[in-house]
């Protein structure tokens, strides 16, 4: 398997330039992973599948689904892709590599973990700033148009917010100058994480049921269905930042009440 993958990578670096791989190919990888992972929650809503696992009972209309998809295509093409192109010299300067051999997992995994921790920290504070009155009204309210989120709403946001919070995602790789393979893996995992958090479904197999400190869909869905001044749960991936700074108190009270209600029903 490793040799097969390296043969594929050899094909990429032989037939495409570093610039093409770091920009166009990266964009294609992102779009593929994002839409393939985000579309199922729309299908679930429209067909009424897995309704027992849906966190909110409200169903988004087909029109709202279509509006989200069309705007995402516009934002990704007119904002994300140009940013990838413009930021290429910076990544190249910081040491982005495409050559073989591919980095060992002993290098890749610590870098990915570092990216998740750094991104979560920066995102938390940036997200709290976006929930101040003026920025929420003029910028962040776009993302909150969907009080009942579905997977694709994870990247539905004002262009200014895409740039502002996108900084948290690219900061780690920009600092470490990773191999392009590591950058792609980080992007894939981050996309899958944020799509799951916005999916609107909490399944028995959801990562938050198994990974300590992981927020997931139930944690973030609470953030979407409350008013901007009372929402809390600002972190992107983990729960400890909100716990440390007391911005998850409403969510914890709700969980405690739900637990008490379930226990009383069983007795």
TrEMBL record:
Keywords: Endoplasmic reticulum, Lyase, Membrane, Transmembrane, Transmembrane helix. This is aldehyde oxygenase (deformylating). The chain crosses the membrane at residues 20-47, 68-88, 108-126, 162-189. It is an enzyme of class 4 (lyase). InterPro entries: Fatty_acid_hydroxylase (IPR006694), Sterol_Desaturase_Related (IPR050307). GO terms for molecular function: aldehyde oxygenase (deformylating) activity; iron ion binding; oxidoreductase activity. It is a multi-pass membrane protein. Belongs to the sterol desaturase family. One of its GO terms (cellular component) is endoplasmic reticulum membrane. It is found in: Endoplasmic reticulum membrane. It catalyses: a long-chain fatty aldehyde + 2 NADPH + O2 + H(+) = a long-chain alkane + formate + 2 NADP(+) + H2O. GO terms for biological process: lipid biosynthetic process. It comes from Dioscorea cayennensis subsp. rotundata. Residues 113-247 form the Fatty acid hydroxylase domain. Its main location: endoplasmic reticulum. Its EC number is 4.1.99.5.
């Amino acid at each position: 398997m490793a040799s097969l993958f390296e043969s594929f990578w050899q094909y990429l670096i032989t037939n495409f330039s570093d610039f093409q791989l770091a920009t166009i190919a990266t964009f294609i990888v992102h779009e593929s992973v994002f839409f393939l992972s985000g579309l199922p929650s729309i299908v679930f809503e429209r067909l009424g599948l897995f309704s027992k696992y849906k966190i909110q009972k409200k169903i988004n209309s087909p029109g709202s689904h279509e509006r989200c998809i069309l705007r995402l295509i516009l934002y990704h093409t007119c904002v994300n892709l140009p940013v990838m192109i413009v930021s290429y010299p910076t990544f190249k300067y910081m040491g982005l590599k495409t050559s073989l051999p591919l980095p060992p997992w002993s290098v890749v995994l610590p870098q990915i973990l570092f990216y998740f921790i750094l991104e979560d920290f920066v995102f938390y504070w940036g997200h709290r700033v976006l929930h101040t009155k003026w920025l929420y009204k003029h910028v962040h309210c776009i993302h909150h148009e969907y009080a009942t989120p579905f997977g694709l709403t994870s990247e539905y946001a004002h262009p200014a917010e895409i740039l502002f919070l996108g900084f948290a995602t690219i900061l780690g790789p920009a600092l470490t100058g990773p191999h392009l393979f590591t950058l792609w893996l980080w992007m894939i995992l981050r996309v899958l994480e944020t799509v799951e958090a916005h999916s609107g479904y909490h399944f028995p197999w959801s990562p938050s049921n198994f990974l300590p400190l992981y927020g997931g869909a139930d944690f973030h869905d609470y953030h979407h269905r409350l008013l901007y001044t009372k929402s809390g749960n600002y972190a992107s991936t983990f729960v400890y930042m909100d716990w440390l700074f007391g911005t998850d108190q409403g969510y914890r009270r709700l969980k405690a009440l739900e637990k008490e209600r379930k226990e009383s029903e069983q007795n």
